[in-house]
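Pasting as-is:
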Amino acid sequence: MNKIKTGSKWDLNGKFVIITGATSGIGLAAAKAIAAHGANIGIVARNEAKANEIAKQINDLSGREAVVDVFLADMASQQSIRQVAKVILAKFPRVDVLINNAGALFQNHQLTDDGIEMTWAVNHVGPFLLTMLLLNRLKESAPARIITTASHGHKMAKMGINFNDLGAEQLYRPLKKLTGGPTVRYSQTKLANILFTAELGKRLEGTGVTTYCFDPGLVATNFNQNNGMLASATMAVMKMFSRSPEKGAETLVWLTETDEISHQTGQYYADKKVELPSVPARDMKAAYRLWNVSKEQTLLTDRFDM
């Protein structure tokens, strides 16, 4: 293996990068920076008007005629994700980078139309399904990358993922809810991001597709602003100690463009370096079990067992 020079870049010029959750926060900051480095961007978003405005901003700021495409999808809906994957595959002969960045935390117990708890659906099942549906195109485009936004908060899931309560009904019981059950649920989804990255990286060895996840740090964004007054007040306090979205996006942009990690896969990063996640996040038996559970929840066939 050739030695990688520190600071060397993976040429993004003309590459096609898909990113979810790019209409605000670190996703927006990352999309702008990646486009400025020469990549063409595909934004996956729910709000068409907002996404189109972001596309215009990216074009204006990139200093060039960047190609910015908008794809409409609800990451809580498997039908919507399947439809947007079809559109992407029909339009683009290659996908060089997939960034799973969209995320949410729901204070009240909700189920999607697919019968899956909402925080789990948006933060894990949706990214899993989108990745699997685009995986062959990523392989055809190799070298290619899959990057998922995780969180330091995964360490709050000290008992790991409760596979006996995937609907999180226990965590949303009144007493559990008062003592942070929804936050623990969010932490479990971020733990799932890390386990998925590790298992996928293992399964993709030798294909030219590499996988990464990262902790953006505590970032001042609009996250968790729609869950009532207490959540809004908590986030307002946290913002005083938070990074800017641009600072939070630095590791994501680095993972997209650096050559330093071309020989690495399946790892967790913070501040542009590999970090050791929690003990539950290093449990490869749990990662394997999560893979099979995720296939069941998305009704995927065995053809996705690489």
